[in-house]
Amino acid sequence: MINIREDEKLSVLNHSCAHLLAQAVKHLYPEAKFWVGPVISEGFYYDMDLGDVTLKEEDLQKIEKEMKKISKDGKRIVRHELSREEALEKFHDDPYKIDLIENMPEDEVISCYTQGDFTDLCRGPHVETVKECKYFKLLKFSGSYYKGDANNKVLQRIYGVCFPSQEELDAYLNELEEMKQRDHRKIGKEQEIFMNHELVGAGMPLWLPNGALIRHQLENYIYEKEEKMGYQHVYTPCVGTVDLYKTSGHWDHYKEDMFPAMKVDDEEFVLRPMNCPHHMLVYKNKLHSYRDLPIRIGEFATDFRYEASGAVKGLERVRCMCQNDAHLFVTPEQIGDEFKKVVDLILSVYKDFGIKNYKFRLSLRDPEDKKKYFDDDEMWDKAENKLREVLNSLEIPYFEAIGEAAFYGPKLDVEVKPAVGPEVTLSTCQLDFLLPRRFDLSYIDSNGEKQVPVVIHRAIFGTFDRFTAFLIEETKGIYPLWLAPIEVNIIPVNLEYHEEYTRSLESWLREENIRVSADYRNEKLSYKMRESVVKKIPVTVIIGQKEVDSDTVSYRLFGSEETTTVSKDEFLNYLKNRIESRN
Q1: pTM of the predicted protein model
Q2: Which residues are catalytic?
């Protein structure tokens, strides 16, 4: 989906349409006062104080009608520059604009834009006339705290979008509708994958049984792959002392993204935001020879990071997450081979899940940002050049992004384009020369001398939370058989005659480790079949008299109208082959 804020022409058009919205609202609600109306990636919004008026759905249609009327009038949009005194006088009856003016830097040029009978404070730029704001749509409205502060008044926010043509607008609206249908929060609720509750807290999802089954299958899948590659898995605590994170450097460079410290006895603890400090200590637990390396330490680890309440979103952006994390301790000579193995693992996983639209980003530090990044130019130059060298030797196409590195080192991020919406970063692989030094890690080289290992941080799924959200939206909740919470649903045609056989089949399949359900409700077959489809269960079995008499199974695959009848053993073999192949 196009990011409107990043497209200069669309950005100007949408900001102009925000003013058109405000003008229409002012016509309909003369007492209205306006806060800000910025362009966002999805279009624009405007925050406004409508006094005692509370917007309803039908009000958007009235506002749209007035906007179209103003647009047809075709008034020019004219820019004026004002002194601070003139601006304060012009907007003297609007406390929101007064606040904006008073908080502007002394040397900033103050400007406003006039279109017909409406003038608004704004930096601009704008299109030439309101007639250019012809193809628009108001999308929704919501409440919004003034200045984002919950202690302030709730304003009303109207969202909209504008394009140069009706065709472009229609295409965008269709994509929005597709995003709505794929939204993992919607599907997650329908399929009982996860839930949130205010008593637990924002950004703290609860995985329900169906979601836990999906996550368990994902964990088994990646665990098997890592085991075959020689990973050693550990469990480490979800907390660490403040001193642990001062040693790692996270306290200085990542503190704002961590939960506050809590004092217990004479120690201060924090919920861990990542696992590398713990894994450094696991490595340091005993002496290592160069012959031991590479050492690959993996963990499915629960981490906690502070996300603003307005940023949390389902499983995609959370405050409590489980990372598919690992740290690889290598000699400098092993960096290339080990990095290649990580990239190969990423590509293998993407192939298994049918992920094809992705690109590699080499994330580098911003040399001017001494606060975000550890200040050691020599270390950074060494790490970034080494990573470029490795990527070039692997002939991996990539692009560079300044300011996207971790505070301790550069990284390779994989940006995936989903079916709808903006790109998401799933996998990451980071090169680290810093933390091994800060934790005084070492190994004995072939000459009997101490050397400092290099650490490769990597996460293939990223977090199970975000990967599950991505997977739900990619599949629309239609999972492959091995991943589905319920693999087989059995429906008896007539409970009086077919329940006993159904229960026997259900028990047998469960003993064979098939995730199975059976519908024993006294409802029509067509109703139960339709519900099985609504639940997107991969395989639906229908048991009638023919199946009871012949000791067979008749099944239908999701999305197909064709019914296949086979023996029970053939059916089981079919299921197991599909599950084991993860097809």
Answers
A1: 0.82
A2: 276, 305, 323, 325, 327, 411, 457
